[in-house]
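Re: the request from the purification team.
They wanted to know what the chain is likely to look like in 3D before they choose a buffer screen. I agreed to run a prediction and write the result into the notebook, where they can find it.
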Amino acid sequence: MNEKIAQQRRDLLREMSLIERMEFGSLAEEYREAKGSGGETVRNGPYYKHQKWEEGRNRSRRVPAQEAKALSEAVEGRQRFESLSAEFIELTVASTRNTGPSKKNSTKSSKKRGAVKRQPS
């Protein structure tokens, strides 16, 4: 493996190991509008909704405002980890393709030298 690619892979693994919190899904911030006592529109919120795919269904739950920041950071941590993982895979695949099979590991022909190849009937 190329030393530059090997170093990039180590850097990615190191960065991945620093991510301590992860959560699946997404966190949405929502606002609700209502009519005030004077007829004006009042905007209430924010309200937070955590959605994730679980047991073959999209599940959602309301999240208290005091938990929203930590949950948002955990979702971002998972997204960052997935992004780093994809980079790691791309580097490894590129390295694998550039390396190719070595002479030592290449497949040998089982046919004897000088043997005539028979045509199928």
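For the purification team: Residues 3-98 form one domain.
Please add any questions underneath this entry.
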